Amino acid sequence: MSMDTVPGCLCKGIEQQYRALVANRALLGVEGEQEALHDLRVALRSLRSLTRPWRKADWCEGMLCSASAFGQRSGPWRDLEVLCIELANQGQDMALNARRAALKTGYLLLREDPLLPQLEQQLEDFLSDAPLLLADWPAGRMAEQLTAELMRLRRRLGNELGRKSLDLHRVRILVKRLRYLLQAFAPALAVSPELLTTLQQCQSRLGDWHDRWQWLQRSQVEQDLRPLTKIWQGQLEQYEKQARRELKRLNRYTGTLFLGSFKD
Predict the structure, then answer these.
(1) Helix (H) or strand (E) holding 159
(2) Could you write out the three-class secondary structure of 89-120?
(3) Which SS3 state, helix, strand or coil, does residue 30 take?
(4) Which of 63, 124, 146, 160 is least surrounded by CB atoms within 10 angstroms?
(5) Per-10-residue mean pLDDT, the chain, length 264
(6) How many Cβ atoms sit within 10 Å of the Cβ of residue 244?
(7) How many other β-carbons are positioned within 10 Å of the β-carbon of residue 74?
(8) Orientation angle between helical segments 115-133 and 58-89, nearest 10 degrees
(9) What angle do CA 126, 77, 227 make, to 5 degrees?
C-alpha cells in the first residue's frame, strides 16, 4: 500500500458511510431498535473525519457542512436516548416514561428532517462523479493534505495531554477525530495496532465519563433524576480515573509516532 491508496480509501469510506446513513435512517424509532441513532451518528463522525483534510475543496464543503449540521441536530436526541437506556437499567420507570414520548418525537423529527436526504444526495453525487471531482487532486497532493491534518491533530492532542490540568471535554473530541481519521485511512498509513486500540479505549472511557457528567448536569434542573446522583457521581470519578490512565498511555504515542507516514 502507498499514498496512491488515499483517493481509494476516501471513495470507499464515503460509500460505506452513505450505506450506513441510509440503512440507519430507516431504522430510527423502530420498536426494539436501540442502535440506529448511535450507528447513524458514528457514520456522520466517520464521514466528517474522512472529508475534513480536504474541507476547502469544492467537492467536500457541502458534504462536510451537511454532516456537521445533522450531527448537531441529532446530538441532543442521542443524549436523551442514552439517558433513557440508563433509566431503564436503573429501574427508574417514572422518569423513563416521562422521556420516552419526547424521544419518539425526536426519532420522527430526525427521519423527516430534509437535511439527511440532502446529505445522502450529496454523497451519491460525489460517488457518481468522483473521478471528475478529484481530477485536480492527484494522489500525492491528497496524501499531503492527509498528512497535514494528522500532524495538526497530533500536535493539538499532544498539547492538551501536556497540560497540568486536562480539559477532558476537549481531549474527548480530539481523540475521536484522530481515531476515526486513522481508521478511515488505515490501508494507506503505517499505523500501529496498539495506537488504534489505545485510542478506542480512551474514547470509550471518556464517553462513559461524559455521560455521567451530562446526567449530573441535568439532575440539577430535572428533579426526578436526583435519586441517581450519588451513583452517577461515584461512576464519574471512577471513569475519570480510568480515562486518565488510558490518556497517559496515549501520551507516549503522541511524542514518538509519526502519524503521517505511508506504507511502502
Answers:
(1) helix 139-161
(2) HCCCHHHHHHHHHHHHHHHHHHHHCCHHHHHH
(3) coil
(4) 124
(5) 73 95 93 90 94 92 95 97 97 95 94 95 96 90 92 90 91 94 86 87 97 98 97 98 93 58 52
(6) 16
(7) 22
(8) 140
(9) 155
